[in-house]
Design goal:
CATH superfamily of the largest domain in chain A: Response regulator
Number of helices of chain B: 9
Strand content of chain B: 15-25%
Distance between the termini of chain B: 20 Å
CATH architecture of the largest domain in chain B: 2-Layer Sandwich
Structural class of chain B: alpha+beta
Oligomer: heterodimer
Order of helices and strands of chain A: EHEHEHEHEHEEEEHEHHEE
Order of helices and strands of chain B: HEEEEEEEHHHHEHEEHEEHHEE
CATH topology of the largest domain in chain B: Beta-Lactamase
């Protein structure tokens, strides 16, 4: 899952980016409204964490601009004001959820995960697809026979993306886009290696290769 | 008493007095002038009669008819005389068979009187006493003044009518003048009440020179106050933003690996940050409250409540509460929009948090503006009802929340000098009724 984090605080931005990365997200950090708006339009993010008090262009304006251009990327608003007026405005502008500062990282992660599940049409609770159960806190997967495997960071990101988009043909480049950060080395061969490792853990049948198209998860 | 009323009353009084005095004076003068002229005429008649009296040596007397005006010859002509000596009296032919009473008066004296003559004529008489050729004479001359009286009466009537019409006309004109002169004040008054109801932000009307400085000063004050409020709201917002961002950082610091291994320290750090967060939230919200100190603004209740409900349904998506609202048509809340949203948001969130499925809000207006929020949850015990608005009081610790919501509502209600009542709803849950005084 690839996230855009828009936070102008020089200390909080990197710390939060770090925390989100540890939770298994590929996170790009943007520190002002104009930059964030452009990134959100260009890159295929799965979710944006948007602070409202931004330099150059307010978060509310950025969100409104995205929505007016039919960019429906899920947005979780972060704000310090916490007034009802702002909450109403935020939801009216098209936000998907709202987290008031000060928050604890856990809380933000829970909200992000809930919004992601909702936007992919999965119901709440732990992610369960095709007999697999993903523990997002422990970053581990439980098979239908009860065995549990811990996942490496990239494995976890891949599996979560697959589980949130079951039955869809997903190209390697799409996987790369959603699993890696903006400025990282995107070698699609690496994806093949990771998919193979994942297959060894969850079973080869669950992730099938469609030649020339990509992968499909859980269709069998 | 209004300025217009005061001016009108004063002007009406003085104008009426003036017209009345003038009417009385003219009436009096007319009467006096006629009487004087009449007297002068009767006097000369009397002198003429005296000249025509010829006294015989035996004391009897004759009137020289050549010297007597023909007016006294025609019967009941309205002009009469009686001449008496000590022994006998003669009266004018015009009296015919009637007679007039005459009292002898000493020479040199004169008496004027009114009496009723023949055919009920009203007579004005002049008696004079003379001394001629060794005899005392009394001559009375009388004239019928019925026609004259009639003329005077008619004149007085006409004059009264003209005066009355003039008075009414003058009063009407002065009423118009006063109204016109006070028109700018009325415009200002209208704008002032518009200001209070939040329809305008300042007074545009130009007042007369006496009042213009006051308007300018008022506008200046309003402007300063609005700017100050905006500035302090913005400053408070910035302060909240900065403090809360730092608190989030503190939270993140507490989540570091090194501290995770010291659960005591981590939990006390979390506790401190949570407490500080709440204090900031409550105190800054309280400081941002406008209350009824500033001129209000119109708030479109229906629209605001609809939007709040939509927001709450998104916030409580898992429960998806049904929020019904009933708002008296044409009801316009006047106050600060942000205050109102804060109040309703917290009330509705509280209801959504506790409801099973349904939340009701109704707004109506009589002497107060009433906001009633009810839910179908399990409600509260009697003993808990009184503790609800206290800061941090949470009736049920198992449901997440800060316990701040109702405390903030209570602050807002206080700042509008309203009241807040808790009771059990017929729907099963809690019923909160907020009464805010209307701004007139």
């Amino acid at each position: 899952m690839r996230l855009l984090l828009v936070e102008d605080d020089a200390q909080m931005g990197p710390t939060l980016q770090n925390a989100l990365s540890q939770a298994g997200y590929a996170v790009d950090l943007s520190v002002d409204g104009i930059d964030a708006e452009a990134l959100g339009d260009i890159e295929p993010y799965d979710l944006v964490v948007l602070d409202l008090g931004l330099p150059k262009r307010s978060g509310m304006e950025v969100l409104q601009n995205w929505r007016s251009r039919d960019n429906h990327v899920p947005v979780v608003i972060l704000t310090a004001r916490g007034s009802w007026e702002e909450k109403v405005q935020g939801f009216k502008a098209g936000a998907d959820d709202y987290v008031a500062k000060p928050f604890q990282t856990e809380e933000l992660l829970a909200r992000i995960s809930a919004v992601l599940k909702r936007s992919s049409g999965t119901s709440g609770g732990p992610l369960q697809v095709a007999g697999l159960q993903l523990d997002e806190d422990a970053q581990s997967v439980k098979l239908s026979d009860g065995t549990t495997f811990t996942l490496t960071g990239t494995e976890f990101r891949l599996l979560r993306y697959f589980m949130l988009h079951p039955g869809q043909v997903i190209s390697k480049s799409r996987l790369t886009e959603h699993v890696y950060e903006y400025d990282s080395d995107k070698d699609s061969n690496v994806i093949e290696v990771y998919v193979n490792r994942l297959r060894q853990k969850v079973g080869t049948d669950l992730i099938q290769t469609r030649r020339g198209q990509g992968y499909i998860f859980g269709s069998a | 008493m209004s300025l217009k009323r005061r001016l009108s009353l004063g002007l009406t009084f003085t104008l009426s007095l003036l017209i009345l005095l003038q009417w009385a004076l003219i009436t009096l003068v007319i009467e006096r002038v006629t009487e004087t002229q009449l007297l002068e005429r009767l006097e000369s008649e009397s002198e003429g009669l005296l000249a025509s009296v010829e006294i015989n040596p035996d004391g009897s007397f004759e009137l020289n008819s050549l010297r007597i005006s023909s007016l006294y010859q025609r019967p009941f002509s309205g002009h009469y005389f009686v001449v008496c000596t000590e022994q006998s009296c003669r009266q004018s032919r015009s009296l015919w068979d009637e007679s007039l009473n005459i009292e002898p008066i000493p020479s040199g004296k004169r008496v004027q009187a009114s009496l009723i003559g023949p055919n009920d004529e009203r007579l004005f008489t002049l008696h004079r006493g003379y001394y001629k050729q060794g005899h005392n004479l009394t001559i009375m001359v009388a004239q019928n003044i019925s026609a004259l009286d009639e003329d005077i009466f008619q004149f007085q009537m006409l004059y009264s009518l003209v005066s009355a019409i003039g008075l009414v006309l003058l009063l009407f004109i002065q009423w118009l003048i006063v109204g016109k002169a006070l028109q700018p004040l009325q415009r200002i008054q209208k704008q002032l009440s518009g200001l209070r109801r939040g329809e305008t932000a300042k007074i545009d009307a130009k007042g007369p020179a006496e009042i213009q400085p006051m308007i300018e000063e008022l506008n200046r004050l309003l402007n300063t106050m609005t700017r100050k409020t905006q500035r302090s709201r913005a400053a408070l917002g910035n302060l909240a933003h900065a403090l809360k961002t730092r608190l989030t950082l503190l939270n993140q610091t507490a989540e570091r690996e090194a501290i995770k291994n010291l659960p005591d320290i981590q939990s006390s750090l979390n506790q401190v940050s949570r407490d500080m967060g709440q204090i900031i939230e409550r105190e800054l919200k309280r400081a941002r409250l406008l209350g009824s100190a500033m001129p209000g603004q119109k708030v479109e209740l229906e629209q605001e409540i609809a939007e709040l409900s939509k927001t709450l349904q998104l916030l409580y998506r898992d429960k998806s509460p049904v929020i019904d609202w009933e708002i008296e048509p044409d009801l316009l809340f006047i106050g600060d929009r942000e205050d109102l949203l804060e109040m309703l948001g917290n009330l509705l969130e509280n209801a959504c948090k506790w409801c099973r499925k349904r939340v009701n809000i109704s707004v109506y207006q009589n002497d107060y503006c009433h906001f009633v929020v009810e839910d179908d949850g399990k409600g509260c015990d009697e003993s808990e009802l009184s503790q609800l608005p206290q800061r941090g009081y949470r009736a049920d610790e198992s449901v997440p929340g800060s316990g701040l919501g109702l405390a903030i509502v209570s602050d807002i209600v206080d700042s509008y000098s309203g009241e807040m009542l808790f009771s059990r709803s017929s729907m099963g849950g809690l019923k909160i009724e907020v009464r805010l005084p209307l701004i007139v």
